[in-house]
Specification:
It is a single chain. The protein has a single domain, classed as P-loop containing nucleotide triphosphate hydrolases (Rossmann fold). The protein has eight helices and five strands; from the N terminus they run βαβααβαβαααβα. Helix 1 crosses helix 8 and helix 3 packs parallel to helix 4. It is globular and about 35 Å long. The model has no long low-confidence stretch (mean pLDDT about 90). This is AAA family ATPase. InterPro entries: P-loop_NTPase.
Length: about 170
């Protein structure tokens, strides 16, 4: 199974993913951003704003997840923001075709909380402006995200509690 934690930067995806892995036996984090980092080194790919715009990223995320689950079993926890509905549909469909069950969660917080979290983040301080600039994309994606994912409000909720909620919903 895959537990996909979606939501914008500052929603608590990475921290919640770590909590889930501690809670769930056989769970591992699959950070699909590394697929994008790998592709950045391939010559000839067009310039893009976000590596998710490369169709190979979406296909490789699916194939990598399937390979990891075939090899390791268990649960993959994927803390990855996907704000383009067509990209999510492509990933979801690829995983469904491979027979991989996916539980898709939207970790949501109000904009004031998100802004505060981004502005006070010391780990990714260099990406602060980029992350803040993507809040508008997140607002625009909210209607389809709320339709496609199970929403968990992380405003004022500790990550361990968010992980408990997610684990409870998935039945793991």
């Amino acid at each position: 199974m895959i537990i996909w934690l979606n939501g914008t930067f500052g929603a608590g995806k990475t921290t919640t993913a770590g909590e889930l892995v501690r809670m769930l036996p056989g769970a591992r984090i699959f950070d699909s951003e590394y697929v994008g980092f790998m592709l950045r080194h391939v010559e000839g790919l067009p310039e893009v704003r976000n590596f998710q715009q490369w169709p190979p990223w979406r296909g490789l995320v699916v194939q990598t997840a399937v390979q990891l689950l075939d090899y390791l079993g268990g649960v993959l926890v994927v803390p990855q923001t996907v704000l383009v509905e067509e990209y999510w549909a492509e990933i979801r469909t690829g995983l469904e075709k491979a027979g991989v069950p996916v539980r898709h969660f939207l970790l949501h917080a109000d904009e004031e909380t998100l802004t505060r979290r981004i502005e006070t983040d010391t780990v990714e301080a260099g990406a602060r402006r980029w992350r803040l600039d993507h809040l508008a994309d997140y607002r625009e994606a909210l209607p389809w995200l709320r339709r496609e994912a199970e929403s968990v409000d992380t405003t004022g909720v500790p990550p361990a509690r968010v992980a408990e909620i997610v684990a409870g919903v998935t039945g793991t």
